[in-house]
Amino acid sequence: MKQIKDRFRQLEDIYPKNEASSIFYICMTTLLGCTKAELLCMREITLSEEQSCRLDQMLERLMKHEPIQHITKQSEFYGSTFCVTKDTLIPRPETEELADWIITDWSGKECSALDIGTGSGCIAITLAKNMKKAEVTAIDISEEALIVAKENAKVNSCHINFAQLDILDRQKRDKAGTFDIIVSNPPYIREAEKEDMQRNVLDYEPATALFVPDNDPLLFYREIAEFGKTHLKNGGKLYFEINQAFGNETVELLSNLGYEDIILRKDMFGKDRMIRATHK
User: Fold this and answer.
1) Which residues of the chain fall short of a pLDDT of 50?
2) Is 39 helix (H, G, I), strand (E, B) or coil?
3) Is 106 helix (H, G, I), strand (E, B) or coil?
4) How many whole angstroms separate alpha carbon 129 and alpha carbon 157?
5) How does pLDDT run across 196-236, given as a tens digit for each residue?
6) What's the burial of 150, exposed, middle or buried (CB within 10 Å: 0-12/13-18/19+)?
7) How do the residues of the chain divide into helix, strand and coil, expressed in percent and rounded to 5?
C-alpha cells in the first residue's frame, strides 16, 4: 500500500493534501472495484500489469489538472452515482444542500418541479428519488448534457420529463406549463473571476454552464424569476443556487419582482449560496 501511495505524492504539488488523499481512494476503489471500507481493510495490494498501467494513465491525466470525476466518468451526489462528462458540471456538495432544502420542504407532497439547466440531471433525479409524489421536468440548452442526464435517470430508475430549451428564449419558454417548484443552479460566475479559478474547472468544465457577462451577473436569475411569475402556481416556490458575492442583490431582485417570504441561506462553508422565494 505504501508503495502505491508514494506514486500519488506527486499530486500534492498541485492539489491540497486532503484532496490528493481523496483522489487516491477514488482511483484505487475504481481500479480494484471495491469500496473504501474494503480498501482500508487490505493489508497488501498487488496490482496487475494492466491495473498498474491504468494507474499511470490516471496519474498522468490528474497531473494535467483533469478532474478525477472525468477520469472515472462518475460523481457522487446525495447518495447516488451520476455519470459526468465534459458537457456537464461536476456536482458540488453545496448543490446537495439546495436539493436537501427542497426535499425537506416537499417530501410526501404531491407536486410538480422544474429543474432549469439540469446538466447531469443530479438535482432533478435526486428530487424524483426522494419525493415519490413529485412529477419532475428538467430542461437544458445543451443536447449533449441531456444525453448524459437521460442516461443518469435510467441508471437511477427515475422518470423525468426532459426537454431541450434555452431559458433565455422568451418565446419558446412561454409554452412551458406551471409548476409548484422551479429550481436552478444557473451560470453565475463573472468572467472577471476566471483568474481566481482552478485549472481543473476552467479547462475541463463547460463554460456555458459557468460564466455570465461581467456587466450582467444576475442575467439568469432575472430571466428565471420573470419566467416564474407566470409559470409558478400560487404559493409555488423558486429555489436558486447563487454567487456568494450577490446574495443581497439577488434577494433585492426577487423582492422587486414581487416574490415574498424570501430566504437567503449560507452553505456549509458559511457563504451565501441558496435562496428560496414564494410566488403568491
Assistant:
1) none
2) helix
3) helix
4) 8
5) 777 778 777 787 778 888 888 999 999 999 999 999 999 99
6) middle
7) 45, 20, 30
Residue 104: all three cell numbers together: 425537506
**Residue-level pLDDT at 147:** 98
For the chain, the structural domain boundaries read 2-64, 77-278
Q: How many residues are present in the chain?
A: 280
SS3 134: strand
pLDDT recorded at residue 114: 99
For the structural domain made of 77-278, what CATH number should be given? 3.40.50.150
Kind of pairing between the strands at 272-278 and 232-241: antiparallel
CA distances from 67 to 58, 62, 229 (A): 10, 7, 38
Question: Rounded to an integer, what distance in angstroms lies between the CA atom of residue 123 and that of residue 117?
Answer: 10
Which amino acid is located at 124 in the chain? Answer: A
